[in-house]
Amino acid sequence: MVFAPGEKPGNEPEEVRLQNASKQIVQNAILQAVRQVSQESRQREERANDNRGSFQLGVGQLTKKHEKK
């Protein structure tokens, strides 16, 4: 095996290190985006469930008010 000047056995060439760092950055960005989308979807679903519950409760209350009259 031949090493470039300043390169030690076991050390990766600069280009390989940069490629690996770039891959890691992309993987981290994708993971963060997936987590964010998942969290936003979960929050939307929770809000939708809360709104449905409020709406149903409101309808029930209106019905009761009309029954009293």
From TrEMBL:
<feature type="region of interest" description="Disordered">
    <location>
        <begin position="37"/>
        <end position="69"/>
    </location>
</feature>
<protein>
    <recommendedName>
        <fullName>A-kinase anchor protein 7 RI-RII subunit-binding domain-containing protein</fullName>
    </recommendedName>
</protein>
<feature type="compositionally biased region" description="Basic and acidic residues">
    <location>
        <begin position="41"/>
        <end position="50"/>
    </location>
</feature>
